[in-house]
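FAQ: What does the model actually see?

It sees only this:
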Amino acid sequence: MRFTEAAAGLTGRPLPDPLPPPPAQLQPTTTDAGGAAGRPGPSWPAPTRASAVLVLLFPDAAGEARVVLTARPSAARRHAGEISFPGGALEPGDASAEAAALREAREEVGLDPVAARVRLVGRLDEVAIGPSGFRLTPVLALATRSPSLVADPVEVAAILTPPLAAFLPGAPIADRRLERDGWILRFGAYVVEERVIWGATARILGQLGALLRSVS
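And it is asked to produce this:
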């Protein structure tokens, strides 16, 4: 998808309310690895800790829209090795989710919002992350200049900039499974450049793709 097309669709009018949902197959489900019928899946307390991520679109040299993602270090305390957006928990000095998302992007990938001409567009649907207790607000933004990004060596193992087209409706979604503590976790995932993108990140990208299709 061309960046100009994405930007026109996202800024020409207010975002729809409600937003279109992401593909249903991106929602993880759990089953008992031992085959016990009716056994409830694992549960966590209701997420209460506010957090925000920056969903940043920008044009590459050819004018195609790309999105900024990060690979977490394998030794990270939370979500080790997973693909995510720049972001984290709101801190006392953050005035809003938008402020937190921009601060985290500066800290994690060195984003200069002025140099990249970042424009905030709105928010996607909040995502609850049970295992870590976060209520995650995705903040959608456009950078009209390709940003100069540098990974923080402690928080980010690699910066990824896959094409937005990889997450539009109709893009391939792979069926995956993991076994944890006697449970089978089944989920749909995007596989881009041999990286598996699943969970909250995949659902946010899937909703972004559905949104762009609805406004284009």
